């Protein structure tokens, strides 16, 4: 049985048909300047063929996610890692689910990486899952550029290789590529050359008109006809379309994109006297500009602080009172008192960046002032308590699993003392299902203002098998704590 889909009408009003089975074997290239109706054409093809074949759309602008409501397409937002997208793509083919890969909101480099991972997942699948499917790539010049641009060379090579596989080797795996581009001159020639069917829309640049005419087998003087096409009109040629070039007008669609062409509307009536207030008055809901961090203390300042503390202790003129014993003080109460003392100590913004020796002296003074503790913790115990306090974890915090938190403490004890707070901060975020801490938060837990030191700490712990760092396609960091079997939510490292 031959399955044909209705594209619209021809010049004389006859229905314009496309042979779907032939399309699966020969692929399609759509070209037209912005506003020529390419997205409308792709949507018409998708709607007309939805009941016949599996559909997979690489959507850089999120225009085709509206197909999900009427036709049941799964929307795959590019929020995970590249490995996640490859796995999802394999499952899409295994279960023959039509899907839209939504790349909206990603920059060009991450869009290329995401599309490459997804296309590779569709391509590298066992033979038993080589079911027929059409793969539509909108704005294909972004994923198969003719020349390098502002994106990284690694991303460009990966994306171009995936697009080449789709158009050159995809047919045997059941994948029929349909690529749409604004400019043929910007599309890699080895990708465009694999298409045998063409739908050429309105084009104005000479270089694009000449290339379109060459693909259609037209004379150069006939290339001028592409300038005269109306919106929604395309010149069709190919084994799935017509043996000779024909002009077709694309029919109506049942769904619509989330974005559309802008419409003219009158400007609002704004009094000129209020313009300055509207533009320059700070709003109450806007975040204030962050203050610059104070510079780190110099070595001379640190030595002077140590000298002052020593003089205050030795020549303060008062005898240190002996602490009274409290026989009713339990271990939990003692821990709570110590935690409160440390919390008050770290409330000082500069305390996070003080050496441990300076903090310990201040801590001893505060413990003596408390007068309810029998003994002051030694330096070793203080370092352990300080690591927990710098992680910002309450000893009685109910949101964390007690057994898992104890295990995190045991694991942290295997690290150097100054890194324990960093590990516990990550453990707190992972166990609490919170975003990964920023570089500045990790650096503060370590006792420094340098975000680069935070990246070094993560590398150090990753090399020793304590954790695994990964970035999702939006640049957010995800840290997996291997021994605990948990991971943080994605968080912006900056």
Automatic annotation (TrEMBL):
Residues 24-213 form the AAA+ ATPase domain. InterPro entries: AAA+_ATPase, ATPase_Atu1862_pred, HerA-like, HerA_central, P-loop_NTPase. It comes from the Bacteria. SUPFAM superfamilies: P-loop containing nucleoside triphosphate hydrolases. PANTHER family: HELICASE MJ1565-RELATED. This is AAA+ ATPase domain-containing protein.
